[in-house]
Amino acid sequence: MHIDSKDLRFADSTLTNELSYEIESWDTNGNSYVWVRVLELTNNATLNAWWGNAAATQAPPNSVDGSTWAPAYDGVWHLAPGLADASGRSGAVAFQSR
Q: 5: Cβ–Cβ under 8 A, 6 or more apart, which residues?
């Protein structure tokens, strides 16, 4: 894997639909946190990850720019310390209880 994760990719069970993802944090010497957007998560869901492609010189833009969750998402919180909005809309959403 590239030290900066440029060659990281995800796909669904058919291996034909590449899935958008966001890198929350990347540490080649420790824990890395990657969030993958899937259409539906079921009991038999398969998520494929691959890396090692030397020709992959750029990470997909969605992995770092918030577009994995845009435009249909009003906000995305991974519930980690700091609770930052990952949607790219700076948490400008007001929530109301129902």
A: 23, 26, 32, 51, 59, 63
pTM above 0.85, yes or no: no
b/e burial code for range 13-51 (CB count within 10 A of at least 16 → b): eeeeeebbbbbeebeeeeeeeeeeeeeeeeeeeeeeeee
Above 80 in pLDDT, residue 72?
A: no
| Mean pLDDT rounded to a whole number for the chain | 77
CA distance 12 to 89: 27
Complete DSSP assignment for 37-74: --S---TT---EEE---TT--S--GGGTSSTTSTTT-S
Contact criterion met (CB below 8 Å) for 20 and 67: yes
Q: Which of 41, 50, 55 is nearest to 8 (CA)?
A: 50
| β-bridge pairing 33-36 and 21-25 | antiparallel
